[in-house]
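Q: How would the structure tokens look for this protein?
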Amino acid sequence: MNDDDWVRAMNAISEVVMNRPLPLRAFDQIYMRAGDMVQQAIRVGNWAQGQKVAFIGDGDGIALSVAVLVNLGIIKKGPERIKVFDFDERIVNSVRRLANKERLKGVEAELYNCLDAFPEKGAFDRFYTNPPWGESNEGNSVVVFARRGIEAIGYRGQGMIVIADDPELEWPSKVLQKVQAYAIGRGFYVASMEPMLHGYHLPEAEHLRSCNLVVGSVQGTARMHAEDTIEEARLTNFYGRSKEPRVKYVRDRARPDHDRAIEQDYTLEMWENLR
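A: Here is the predicted structure in token form.
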């Protein structure tokens, strides 16, 4: 990518960043940094050329990032279809809002909680997810999101799972091992892994990075399971320590101007009060 394309890409991603809602840390929403979003969107766009892609959660806004970079021609050929499934209605509405504004073709979003049965099993070729990373639950939260992704592609195709990756910490390697074992047990293999790629807006752990773990189905060995119900053990510490999934949906509040600050975010100190 030349300098002009990089500027155009960053400007486009800034629109995605401005459009996405503020993260809710209670649900382990931690957003990727803008420069890493550009590079990730290009990776995902090229990986999913001509494919139907399900995003199992997408607070970062990678789905929209892929779509806007395709629209600019920076990604030459993108996915045929992009659909975001998220339990946060603010995210669902933000996808619909920017897709409509920029006339992004083939971009959809649906309100969905991954603890429910997946609504479009087998309708997609690839899945992408950046779930809660599972530090406090041994990776069970990642397994739940990966499970729904595997169902989305009907146990055929590939999935990209974004997981914490830090050789100085013990828990990320344990989570990676568990997720890989789960995928292999469903007839998948590790197609590739790109280590320590992405940084996040995470003040208490600015060093923490994540990797792209790509799993692919092995023809003739896929093991389909009736997995609509999530075992109770997988729900413990789902969003972090002592944070079980008691909320089905995060609902959006209607606002006419999503690109402007709301009054609850600030106060005004007037000149006349200072004299």
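The longest strand covers residues 188-198.

The beta strands are 52-56, 81-86, 107-111, 126-129, 158-164, 188-198, 210-217.

Upvote if useful.
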